Amino acid sequence: MVGNVFSSVASNYDIMNDLMSAGLHRLWKDRLVSKLNPFPGMKHLDVAGGTGFGNHRSLIWVEGAAEALRFEDNSMDGYTIAFGIRNVTHIEKVLAEAYRVLKSEGRFLCLKLSHVEVPGFKQLYDYYSFSVIPALGEVVAGDRESYQYLVESIRRFPPQEKFASMIADAGFQKVEYENLVGGVCRSILD
Questions:
Q1: Are 112 and 186 in contact (CB under 8 A)?
Q2: Coil, helix or strand for 155?
Q3: Where are the strands (E) in 85-132, listed by range?
Q4: Which of 32, 50, 105, 143 is 20 to 30 A from 10 (CA-CA)?
Q5: Whose CA is closest to 188, among 43, 84, 53?
Q6: CA 47, 88, 116, 160 torsion: positive or negative?
Q7: Considering the domain 2-50+66-189 in this protein, what is its CATH number?
Q8: Domain spans, the chain
Q9: Contact 48, 82 (CB under 8 A)
């Protein structure tokens, strides 16, 4: 199902992200990278990397399963996953794999769309999510169903406290999260 959704939306992925978030997804990703604090020679794994628009030539693209990474234990300085964790089949396996491939001083950072908890704003966001986003998907991408899946998958994902607990259960020691735009987006790091 998820593979079909992403195949369907790939050609309009970047423009739809800009439209759905009013461009905020770019600021959220920039903030995530600044928290990663990249350094020369850093070995960094970005899982669910999107279209790669704006990628750097020094990147090596590898297609694989987040639940069974083809990298050595303790081999990465950083691991990021932006807007992809809710689409994996086994969240616990993905987190365990992230922990396995990271060096002891490595950083895990996750950016995800989330549950809005601000009264008043929650109702507005729910209306936008369930009415506007699927309609945008239909008009721009010709695919209402995939964007309906998107908003429903966000609501099915565990709330921030539960997800933070899952990260800690995978072995990460210092789990912090930050709500962005009233909880529309959450940044989680160890």
A1: yes
A2: helix
A3: 102-113
A4: 32
A5: 84
A6: negative
A7: 3.40.50.150
A8: 2-50+66-189
A9: yes
Residue 9 CB partners (closer than 8 Å, separation 6+):
16, 137, 141, 143, 146, 147
How many CA atoms lie within 13 Å of 37's alpha carbon, on the beta-carbon side? 7
Structure-token match 């991408």, residue found? 141
| Angle of helix 160-169 versus helix 91-101 axis, rounded to 10 | 50
What is the radius of gyration, based on Cα positions, of the chain?
A: 16
